[in-house]
UniProtKB/TrEMBL annotation:
GO cellular component: membrane
Family classification: Belongs to the DHHC palmitoyltransferase family.
EC number: 2.3.1.225
Highest taxon listed in the record's lineage: Eukaryota
Cellular localisation: Membrane
Domain Palmitoyltransferase DHHC per the UniProt entry, residue ranges: 1-102
Species for this entry: Symbiodinium natans
Substrates-to-products reaction catalysed: L-cysteinyl-[protein] + hexadecanoyl-CoA = S-hexadecanoyl-L-cysteinyl-[protein] + CoA
Name of protein: Palmitoyltransferase
Gene Ontology MF terms in the entry: protein-cysteine S-palmitoyltransferase activity
Xref: PANTHER family: PALMITOYLTRANSFERASE ZDHHC16
Transmembrane regions listed in the UniProt entry: 18-47, 59-84
Protein backbone atom coordinates (compact mmCIF):
# COMPACT_ATOMS: atom_id res chain seq x y z
CA UNK A 1 0.00 0.00 0.00
CA UNK A 2 2.55 2.63 1.08
CA UNK A 3 5.96 3.08 2.68
CA UNK A 4 5.97 4.34 6.26
CA UNK A 5 9.17 6.04 7.45
CA UNK A 6 8.16 5.57 11.11
CA UNK A 7 8.51 1.81 10.91
CA UNK A 8 10.91 1.88 7.94
CA UNK A 9 8.76 -0.62 6.11
CA UNK A 10 5.99 -0.82 3.56
CA UNK A 11 2.48 -1.22 4.96
CA UNK A 12 0.20 -3.66 3.18
CA UNK A 13 -2.34 -6.35 3.91
CA UNK A 14 0.21 -8.67 5.52
CA UNK A 15 1.35 -6.15 8.15
CA UNK A 16 -1.50 -3.61 8.30
CA UNK A 17 -2.72 -5.21 11.53
CA UNK A 18 0.61 -4.52 13.24
CA UNK A 19 0.69 -0.97 11.87
CA UNK A 20 -2.80 -0.24 13.21
CA UNK A 21 -1.93 -1.71 16.60
CA UNK A 22 1.24 0.43 16.63
CA UNK A 23 -0.77 3.56 15.86
CA UNK A 24 -3.38 2.71 18.49
CA UNK A 25 -0.73 2.05 21.13
CA UNK A 26 1.12 5.28 20.30
CA UNK A 27 -2.10 7.31 20.40
CA UNK A 28 -3.14 5.87 23.77
CA UNK A 29 0.35 6.21 25.26
CA UNK A 30 0.64 9.86 24.20
CA UNK A 31 -2.82 10.69 25.52
CA UNK A 32 -2.15 8.97 28.85
CA UNK A 33 1.24 10.66 29.20
CA UNK A 34 -0.33 14.06 28.50
CA UNK A 35 -3.02 13.50 31.13
CA UNK A 36 -0.52 12.28 33.73
CA UNK A 37 1.79 15.22 33.03
CA UNK A 38 -0.97 17.81 33.35
CA UNK A 39 -2.60 16.15 36.37
CA UNK A 40 0.74 15.84 38.16
CA UNK A 41 1.63 19.45 37.47
CA UNK A 42 -1.78 20.68 38.59
CA UNK A 43 -1.60 18.56 41.75
CA UNK A 44 1.89 19.86 42.57
CA UNK A 45 0.79 23.46 42.00
CA UNK A 46 -2.29 23.01 44.22
CA UNK A 47 -0.19 21.25 46.88
CA UNK A 48 2.33 24.10 46.93
CA UNK A 49 -0.42 26.70 47.45
CA UNK A 50 -1.42 25.31 50.86
CA UNK A 51 0.02 26.93 53.99
CA UNK A 52 0.85 23.57 55.57
CA UNK A 53 2.90 22.44 52.57
CA UNK A 54 6.68 22.87 52.52
CA UNK A 55 6.78 22.43 48.75
CA UNK A 56 8.02 25.47 46.86
CA UNK A 57 5.73 26.71 44.09
CA UNK A 58 6.76 25.65 40.61
CA UNK A 59 8.96 28.14 38.80
CA UNK A 60 8.09 29.78 35.51
CA UNK A 61 10.61 27.61 33.63
CA UNK A 62 8.94 24.49 35.00
CA UNK A 63 5.51 25.71 33.96
CA UNK A 64 6.72 26.68 30.48
CA UNK A 65 8.42 23.30 29.94
CA UNK A 66 5.35 21.44 31.19
CA UNK A 67 3.13 23.43 28.85
CA UNK A 68 5.41 22.86 25.86
CA UNK A 69 5.61 19.11 26.48
CA UNK A 70 1.84 18.91 26.95
CA UNK A 71 1.24 20.77 23.68
CA UNK A 72 3.71 18.49 21.88
CA UNK A 73 2.06 15.36 23.28
CA UNK A 74 -1.39 16.65 22.33
CA UNK A 75 -0.13 17.38 18.79
CA UNK A 76 1.24 13.82 18.59
CA UNK A 77 -2.14 12.46 19.68
CA UNK A 78 -3.90 14.43 16.93
CA UNK A 79 -1.30 13.51 14.29
CA UNK A 80 -1.24 9.79 15.02
CA UNK A 81 -4.99 9.51 15.55
CA UNK A 82 -5.44 10.94 12.04
CA UNK A 83 -3.22 8.15 10.66
CA UNK A 84 -5.21 5.63 12.67
CA UNK A 85 -8.47 6.99 11.30
CA UNK A 86 -7.11 6.73 7.73
CA UNK A 87 -6.21 3.08 8.30
CA UNK A 88 -9.64 2.27 9.71
CA UNK A 89 -11.24 4.00 6.71
CA UNK A 90 -9.06 1.95 4.36
CA UNK A 91 -10.35 -1.22 6.02
CA UNK A 92 -13.92 0.03 5.84
CA UNK A 93 -13.65 0.99 2.15
CA UNK A 94 -11.39 -1.98 1.28
CA UNK A 95 -8.94 0.29 -0.49
CA UNK A 96 -5.25 1.04 -0.32
CA UNK A 97 -3.79 4.53 -0.18
CA UNK A 98 -3.03 4.41 -3.91
CA UNK A 99 -6.55 3.18 -4.69
CA UNK A 100 -7.97 6.02 -2.61
CA UNK A 101 -6.05 8.56 -4.70
CA UNK A 102 -7.24 6.81 -7.88
CA UNK A 103 -10.81 6.70 -6.49
CA UNK A 104 -11.03 2.92 -6.86
CA UNK A 105 -11.46 0.19 -4.26
CA UNK A 106 -11.51 -3.53 -3.74
CA UNK A 107 -14.57 -5.73 -3.58
CA UNK A 108 -17.39 -4.35 -1.42
CA UNK A 109 -18.40 -6.30 1.64
CA UNK A 110 -19.21 -5.65 5.28
CA UNK A 111 -16.83 -3.84 7.61
CA UNK A 112 -16.59 -7.01 9.69
CA UNK A 113 -15.41 -9.07 6.69
CA UNK A 114 -12.79 -6.44 5.81
CA UNK A 115 -11.72 -6.28 9.46
CA UNK A 116 -11.31 -10.06 9.63
CA UNK A 117 -9.29 -10.00 6.40
CA UNK A 118 -6.78 -7.65 8.05
CA UNK A 119 -6.85 -8.77 11.70
CA UNK A 120 -7.79 -12.42 11.36
CA UNK A 121 -10.29 -14.28 13.49
CA UNK A 122 -8.16 -14.41 16.64
CA UNK A 123 -5.91 -11.49 17.46
Amino acid sequence: DHHCPWINNCVGLSNQKLFILFLGLYTCASAIFTLILLAGSAFYWLWSQNNWSDAPPPGSASLICTGMVAVECFAAVLFVSDFLQEQVESIQMNSTLVETYQRTHGARSTFYNHFVAVFGTSW
